Amino acid sequence: MTVKEMKLNDDFVYNNEEEAEMGQLHAIHNNMNAIANVRRQLEEQASKPSLTHCEECGDEIPEKRRLAIKGCQLCVFCQELQERR
Q1: How far apart are the first and last CA of the chain?
Q2: pLDDT value of position 3
Q3: Torsion angle, CA of 84/35/12/16, rounded to 10 degrees?
Q4: I want to staple 20 with a disulfide (CB 3.0 to 4.6 A). Which of 14, 46, 62, 63 is the partner?
Q5: Cα torsion at 67, 70, 75, 76 (round to 10°)?
Q6: Residue 61, phi then psi, degrees to nearest 5
Q7: pLDDT tens sequence across 50-63
Q8: DSSP state string for 15-70
Q9: Residue 73 phi/psi, 5° resolution?
Q10: Is the pTM higher than 0.85?
Q11: Are 71 and 78 in contact (CB under 8 A)?
Q12: Coil, strand or helix: which one is 75?
């Protein structure tokens, strides 16, 4: 594969090594931002008290879940739905 045909993934072909490196750095930067956002959301969630009932559907949240997940606001089902979105 020549420099003009460098592939880092199946979706994009870079014209040269410099573009390929910039693409890698951009992807790393995006991943680091995503990780920072998740950490921030988890810290914010942990600062809230766990609810006894799901804020989406109103079903009871089991005590074991509330103890295991600080600031739990959703039942397992609603949490899975939210994560899929």
Answers
A1: 38
A2: 43
A3: 180
A4: 14
A5: -90
A6: -95, 120
A7: 999 999 999 999 99
A8: SSHHHHHHHHHHHHHHHHHHHHHHHHHHHHHHTSPPPSB-TTT-PBPPHHHHHHST
A9: -120, -20
A10: no
A11: no
A12: coil
